[in-house]
Amino acid sequence: xxxxxxxxxxxxxxxxxxxxxxxxxxxxxxxxxxxxxxxxxxxxxxxxxxxxxxxxxxxxxxxxxxxxxxxxxxxxxxxxxxxxxxxxxxxxxxxxxxxxxxxxxxxxxxxxxxxxxxxxxxxxxxxxxxxxxxxxxxxxxxxxxxxxxxxxxxxxxxxxxxxxxxxxxxxxxxxxxxxxxxxxxxxxxxxxxxxxxxxxxxxxxxxxxxxxxxxxxxxxxxxxxxxxxxxxxxxxxxxxxxxxxxxxxxxxxxxxxxxxxxxxxxxxxxxxxxxxxxxxxxxxxxxxxxxxxxxxxxx
Length: 299
Description:
The protein has about 300 residues and is α/β, with parallel strands linked by helices. The chain has helices at about 1-25, 35-45, 95-100, 105-110, 125-130, 145, 160-175, 190-195, 200-205, 210-215, 225-250, 260, 280-295; strands spanning about 60-65, 110, 135-140, 180-185, 255.
């Protein structure tokens, strides 16, 4: 039995060696020539994918609310699109459109479809209008009016806000699949209240109905007023989370990372008619932020 087992193992060893030799040891991934396809891959590496984001769009459309319309920046309770951070032609503001296209081209290749009082529910209709132009970039600033309601209870629910923004993006994508989108965060309404409440004239204008959920009873500091403002502020933060998350699902969408929300608007950056909306100086600061985010360069 011992000799027979020895001879059997020898035969098996010789057979295995012969098979592996004939296979060039490829069974173990070593030895022998590489396949031609592998050689070709090494000789001609795949090119890097073309970046989706274009930092030099040739045309711009703006959608959103009163901020993008330049409300109260030139006269009391009036739009002033000439000083809009997104598309205005004013040299004092140096809008995003002017910075990207130059003044002459901005006059013919930028369009403002924002509307004072607009909420996220209105964005789909604005996107429909903007898409007709086939702009290479659409700017979005919306959400403040969803928080600025008659009462905190009347604010747009977060789930509705998300569904409305998603529908607006789908509407744009169906008509203009390659258009880029820059999304600005909702401003910090609590900070605007804290800045404006020091001005007597501003507080009188607030009584006309400007953001009552935050600005109503501006001097009240009791627990109920504090809770109301904190509730509104939390809703703004939730809206910004939605803007970030929905934008992140689109390869051609860029959120500002909370830059507008974090910007510390001072009295120079607020309208001296209502001490809430951006002044011309404030519009210029918004244009700077947008330019940095769209191009990746300093203003």
